[in-house]
Design brief:
It comes from Plakobranchus ocellatus. The chain has about 425 residues and is mainly alpha-helical. The protein has helices spanning about 5-20, 70-75, 80-85, 95-115, 150-155, 175-180, 190-195, 205-210, 215-225, 230-250, 260, 270-280, 290-315, 320-340, 345-355, 360-370, 375-395, 400-410, 415-434, and strands at about 40, 55, 65, 120, 135-140, 145, 280, 285-290. Bound molecules: zinc ion (ZN) (2 copies).
C-alpha cells in the first residue's frame, strides 16, 4: 500500500484547480495527456498500528494538521468560531463536540474542493484499507465523510443529528441527503443530474460519463427533448457510450481518453474495433451477438459527432469543427455500409429504425427493461391533482391526458405517460376491489 503523502495532495489539488479554473468552453478543447487525468482517491490507513499520522485540513488556512484543536488555538485564536469554543469549559462534552465540529468543517471544505476539481485525496472520518471515492458520502448533519454502507450506523450516534425533527428517515435517506451536499460536476446541469445521473449506479462507467463533457452534452440534449425519452432510456444510452469509452481507453492505454479525442478521423478503426468488442462480434460468421447495441451505438456516435461540431462552432474552434465534420462524413459513409452489408439481420432492424422515429421503436423495449420505481408522495399527489376526474369516474386516462399531466408537473418528469396511465389504472382497479 502507498503511504498517503498529504503534502503532495495539496500540490496536486492546486495544480488541478488551476488547470480547470476557466470553466465552460475549454472542456471541449483537446484535453490534457492521460497521466494528468483527474483522479480522486481516499486517504487509506497506513499500518495496523495506531500511529498518530492522521491529518486533517484546517478550515481557515487549508493546511494539513495533526492536532487540530492545538493548531486552531495557536494560529486562529482570533476567529470567532474558535473564540466561542475556547470560552467553553475545558474537558467538557460541549467543548469536545465543538472541536469535532470545526474539524469536520475543515475536512468538508477540503473534500468539497477535491471533488469539485476532480483530483486529490479525500479525508474520510475513519480510514480503511480500501475505500474508493464512489463509496463515500457526507453526513448531512456533521459533514463528516463516511462509507456509504456504514453511514446509517453513524446516523444513529451522530452528535449533530440528535434532537432534530426527522429522527427516522426512509431507507437510503441518509445517503440521498448526503449526496445532495456533494458538489455537482461543473459541466452537468442540475435537472439532468437529479433526474438521470443521480439514479445511475455509482460505478466506474458513471465516473467516466461525468468526466466526459461530450457524453454529458449528448445526454443533456436527449434530456431536453424530454417528451419522448424517459430518464432510464437516456441513462441506458449514455451508459453505452461510457462503456464504449472505457473499451477505447483500455485499447489505447489511455492515450485516447475522451470521446472528443475518439471522434477523430484517425480513430475510426479504433471505434469500429471497440464497438465490435462491446457488441460481441463473431469473426467467423460476421455476426454481432448484440446487434441492436451496435446499431444504437452507431446512432449515438453519429449524434455525438454533430453535437461536437455544434459545440466547436459555438466556441469558435475551427480545427475542432473540421475534425468533427470529417469524422462525421467518414463515419456515415464507412460505418453504415459496413454494418448493413455485413449483417443482413441487423439491416432490417436498421431500416426499420431509420424509417420509424426512434422513440416509437425503442420505447416498448425500454419499458420491459425498466426497473420498478416506487411512487413518491409528491408524484402521487401530482397525478391526483391532474387526473382526479379519471380516478373518480373510473375511466383510464387517454394518452393526451396523461402526457399533459407529465408535462405540467416537474416531479413526473422521470415517468412516461405509460407509467402515469398504468398507475391510474391500478389505482382504479384497487378501489373497485374494495
Ligand atoms: Zn489553520
Ligand atoms: Zn454525522
Amino acid at each position: 500500500a502507498v503511504e498517503p503523502n498529504t503534502v503532495k495532495v495539496e500540490e496536486n489539488l492546486l495544480e488541478g484547480s488551476s488547470s480547470r479554473s476557466s470553466e465552460g468552453c475549454e472542456i471541449f478543447a483537446i484535453p490534457e495527456p492521460a497521466e494528468e487525468l483527474p483522479k480522486v482517491s481516499v486517504v487509506k490507513r497506513g499500518s495496523l498500528k495506531n500511529v498518530w499520522d492522521k491529518k486533517h485540513s484546517c478550515m481557515f488556512c487549508f493546511k494539513n494538521v495533526n492536532k487540530m484543536s492545538t493548531h486552531l488555538q495557536r494560529v486562529h485564536k482570533k476567529e470567532s468560531p474558535v473564540k466561542r469554543v475556547m470560552a467553553m469549559a475545558k474537558g467538557s462534552y460541549e467543548r469536545r463536540k465543538a472541536w469535532a465540529e470545526l474539524l469536520n468543517q475543515g475536512d468538508f471544505k477540503h473534500n468539497y474542493k477535491v471533488l469539485k476539481s476532480g483530483s486529490g485525496q479525500l479525508i474520510p472520518r475513519y480510514r480503511t484499507k480500501n475505500k474508493s471515492a464512489e463509496d463515500c458520502v457526507v453526513c448531512s448533519f456533521c459533514k463528516g465523510l463516511y462509507g456509504k454502507s456504514l453511514l446509517y450506523v453513524h446516523y444513529k450516534t451522530c452528535s449533530q443529528r440528535k434532537g432534530t425533527a426527522n429522527a427516522r428517515g426512509r431507507k437510503g435517506e441518509a445517503v440521498r441527503q448526503g449526496s445532495m451536499l456533494m458538489p455537482l460536476p461543473s459541466n452537468v446541469s442540475e435537472g439532468f443530474f437529479s433526474h438521470v445521473v443521480a439514479r445511475m449506479q455509482k460505478d466506474d462507467v458513471t465516473r467516466i460519463i461525468l468526466n466526459d463533457s461530450l457524453i454529458v452534452k449528448f445526454g443533456e440534449r436527449k434530456f431536453c427533448a424530454t417528451e419522448c425519452y424517459t430518464a432510464s432510456y437516456i441513462s441506458t444510452r449514455i451508459r453505452e457510450l461510457g462503456r464504449l469509452l472505457k473499451v477505447v481507453r483500455l485499447k489505447t492505454d489511455m492515450k485516447v481518453s475522451t470521446l472528443t479525442q475518439a471522434l477523430h478521423p484517425e480513430n475510426l478503426d479504433l471505434i469500429i474495433q471497440s464497438v465490435r468488442e462491446l457488441a460481441e462480434f463473431n469473426e467467423e460468421n460476421h455476426h454481432f451477438r448484440k446487434s441492436s447495441l451496435a446499431l444504437r451505438l452507431g446512432h449515438s456516435i453519429k449524434k455525438c459527432a454533430s453535437v461536437l461540431r455544434a459545440e466547436a462552432i459555438k466556441i469558435g474552434d475551427e480545427e475542432l469543427v473540421e475534425q468533427a465534420k470529417r469524422f462525421d462524413s467518414l463515419f456515415s459513409g464507412n460505418w453504415f455500409d459496413y454494418i448493413t452489408e455485413i449483417q443482413s439481420t441487423s439491416k432490417t432492424v436498421f431500416n426499420q429504425q431509420t424509417q420509424k422515429k426512434q422513440n416509437v421503436e425503442d420505447k416498448p423495449k425500454m419499458r420491459k427493461k425498466m426497473k420498478r420505481q416506487p411512487w413518491s408522495e409528491d408524484e402521487i399527489n401530482a397525478v391526483k391533482r391532474h387526473l382526479s376526474d379519471c380516478i373518480v369516474t373510473g375511466m383510464v386516462p387517454k394518452k393526451a391526458q396523461a402526457m399533459k399531466a407529465v408535462a405540467a408537473e416537474p416531479c413526473l418528469r422521470s415517468r412516461s405517460w405509460h407509467n402515469v396511465k398504468d398507475y391510474v389504472y391500478n389505482l382504479i382497479k384497487k378501489t373497485k376491489e374494495k
